[in-house]
Specification:
heterodimer; A: alpha/beta; Glutaredoxin; 36% helix; B: mainly beta; Immunoglobulin-like; 7-stranded mixed β-sheet; 6-stranded mixed β-sheet; 10 helices; 27% strand
Amino acid sequence: MKIVDNERRKFLRLANGTKKIAKQSDRFANHPLRNQLGQDVNFYTDLVRNRITIVNFFYTHCEGICLPTTANLLQVHKRLGPRVGKEILFLSMSLEPERDTPAKLHQYASMFGNPHGWLFLTGKYEHLEELRYQLGAYDLDPIIDADKEQHTGLVTFGNDRSNRWAALPALMDADGLARSIRRITR
Amino acid sequence: MPNRRDFLKQGTVVGGVVSLSSISLYSGKLSLLGGKAHAKEAEPPPSPIPEGWQPFTQNLQAPLRLIPVPLDPPPGTGELLPEDGIGAQVGSEAVSNGIAQEFFDKRFNLSREDVPEPYKQNLITYQLTMREFMVPMFGDGFPKVPKVGYFGLSDGVLDGEELPMPVPAPNSTIIARFKQPIVVRVTSRINVEASVHLHGGHNPAHSDGFPDFYVLENQTRDYFYPNCVPRHDGDLSRYDNFDLSEVPSTLWYHDHGMDATGFNVSRGLAGYYLVTDELERELMNPEREGGQVLPNLETDYGVFDIPLALSDQRLNPDYTLHYDFLDHNGRLGDLFTVNGFVQPVLKVQRRKYRFRILNASNARWYTIRLSDRQPFLLVATDSWLLPEVQRHRKLTLSNGARRDIIVDFSKAPNELFLENIMEQEDGRGPKRINPKAKVRLMKFEVEEEGDEDVKDNLVIAEGTKLRPHVPLNPDDVQITRTFELERRNGAWQINDKWFSPRRADAVPALEQTERWIFKNKSGGWSHPMHVHLAAAQVQKVNGRKPPADVRFNSDLLALRGGDEFEILIRFSTFTGPFVFHCHNLEHEDMRMMGVFDPRPVGYLSPLDGKTAVDSSISGLEHEPDDDDVFEDLDLSPIEHEGVGHPHGDFEAGGGGVAPSPDEKEQENESGDDRRSKRNPRGG
C-alpha cells in the first residue's frame, strides 16, 4: 500500500517525464535536535525518513492538556505494539526548548514509564518553531498562535514511504486514534 | 515562456492578489508579532503555467453521461438476495453489499408485494471505477495532470482499459428519474480509502457514504439509490402523500472517506447526479401548454443544460497535484478550473442556457456574476427547484453548494465572462465581496447576431412557477437541538465533543419535525454545514429572514464567523447512521462532524459508543487488511470492541433514544437546565 510505488512512478514518468514525486516530507527542515538522553539527531534523516512518525508538541511546564495528551498517546502507543521503536517512532517536541533540557525531558518521560520508541526532543527555539509550522501545528490568528497551549492538542502522523499524512485531535478516544493512525500510515 | 507577471497582465487573474493568496496574508500577519516573525512555513511555489498556453482558448466540455450496464452478479440476487426485514446480505467476495431491505420497504412505495413486476425489473444499474487518469487541464498539447476520477461506460471503457482523451473532471454524470431505483457498483483501483456520498439524496445509511463505510483498494460495493422522497404524514397505506417538494434536481456525488475526503475530492472524486420527475419533465416538455420552461435534460444535456463545476487547484512544478496533508485551514488553489479545465471557453448560441453551477472546491467560496452585469434567473438552490424563478445579479456558493441558473445570451455582448468576486486569502473562509479582486472563471463566446436557426422556445422569467414548496410548520417542532461549533487546540468540536463515528450525537424520531440551531462560535472561521438525508428549511439567519435564495429547501448552511442559523428539518425516510459536518473538507477531515441516527419513536440507537455499527448496515469490515508493517500487532482491542467513548447520554433528544411527542413539553421545561448541566461553561 504505497502511494509512491513503482507503478505510480512509471505512470507519472510515462505521462509527464516526472523524475521525483513531490512528498510531504520535502517541506520538513532537517534540523538538529536533542532527545531526553542527550543524543543528537536530525529531524528528517534520523527520525522521519522511511518511517512512520507520530508527532505532538508539548512542554514540561504545561499545566493544561499536555499531561492528559501524553497519557492518551501512551494508550495509542500500547495499541501499536512492538513495531514502535523500529518502523514507528513517537516524537514529542518541546515548545519551550530553552527550559526543557534533556534532563527535564527525561524526567517527563519517566513519569510515563520511559515508553520505548518515544523521543522527547529539544533544540533551538527557531528550529522547533519552524518544524511546528511545517507539521501544521499553528493558527493563522497570531494571538492564538502566540498561546503555546493551542498547539498541544494535535497529533500529526504520517508514513514517509507511502507519503500519506494527517493530523487528529490528540485527546480523541485512543482506540479511534490508533485505528486511524494504523489505516492512514499503512 | 511567459513568466507569471506576464500571465497576470493578460488579465487571467485580475487584481493580482488572488493567486498568491493564502501565504501572503499569512506572512504579513506573522510580521505583526514583531521580532517573533521566525518560523514561517515555506511557501508552496505557484502553479506552473505551460509555455504558450493562453486562458480562454480551450473548450469547456460537459461531464460525460454515464450509460447503464448490467451487473454480474445482479444486485440482490443469489447470495445477495435480501429478505424482508433482515437487511442487506453481506459476505460475497465480489460485492460487499447487496440491495438493501429498503428496496422492499413499504414506506417508499417500493414494497415487494405492491410494486408491479416491471417496475422492479426496471432497476437501473451502473458501474463505476475509481482510478487514476491524466486530465488535460490546460487542453490538448499541454502537460496533463494525474488525477483520480469515477469512470464508467460513458468513457467507452470499463475497469482497467485505456481512456480516450480528453475526459473532463468531474466525470460520469448519472441522470436518474424519481421513483426509478438505481444501483451503482463502485470498484476502487486507488490505494486511498474512499466512501461515495450522494449529496442531497434520500439514501439508506449503508449507501450514504458514511465516513468509514469504506470502499478499499480492489474492493467493490453496491450503492442503492432509491430516488424516493418522504411521505407528508407517514401513512403507508396511501400513495398520494409523497412530499414532492423534496424531489431533487441537481445532486452531486463525491468522496466522503473519513480522514481522506479533502485529498480525494481535490483529486477529482466528484460527479453530477441529476434527477427529474413528472413535474420537472413537464417543465422541460417542448409541447407544454404555455411553453417550455427549462431545456430538456434528455436531449439537451451538455448542449443547453450544462453542469459547471468550479474547483480551484494548485500544481507542483512537475504538473502533479499539490496537496498539503498538514494544511488544516482549508486548501486553496491558484488555478481556477471549470469541469476540470483551467479557464475554458464555451461557445454559445443567442438563446437561454441552464447552467448547473457547483462549488466543488475544498475551501474556496465563490460569488459569481456575469462580466456584463446582466441579471440571470435562479431556478434551483442546492438540490431543489425553487417554488418560483428568482432574478439575481450575483450569488454566493459555499463549499458543496449548487445554484442552477438560466442565462439569456440573446442580447449579450459577443464575449463575456463568468466571474468570481469573492475575495479569499486563506482557508478560514471568504473575506468579503470585492469586485476589484475579481477572477475570470470562464469565457462565453456568443455567436454572431442574426442567426435565424437559433431555436429558443424557453418561456421563463422572474416569477415563473416551478416546484411548489411545502414548508415545515414551526408549531410541529417536537424538539430543539443546538449545535455549537468551536475551535479548540487546533481542531474542531461540536458541542464540546470530538467526532466519533460510533456515537450518535442526536437521535431524531422519524416523522417528527425538529428545530436545529447551528452556532458558529469559532471567531473568524467560516463553516458551511451540511446535514445529510433531508432538506433543511432555513428559518432565521442571525435572527433575521434568510437571503432569498435559501428561503426554501437547501442542504448547505453558509455559516461565517459568529453566525447562527436556525433550520427546521424532518427525517422520515431512513434510519441512520448519517452525519452532519462542515463542508470545508479540511475541517471535515479534522473531524468537524457529528452523527445523527433517526429511529422510530422510543427506539434505541445502536450507536451508544460501545457497539460497532451493525455490519448489515455498514456492509463490510471497516478496516483494510493488515499490511506487513503491522503484521505483528495485537489488534484485538481495536478490532473487537468498537471505538468511541462509551456514553450514557441517553436522555430523549440528547442522543440515544428517539424522543416521543409527549416529551415535547418536558423538553421545553427542562431543556435549558439540562443543556447547562452538560455544558457547564454555558451556551
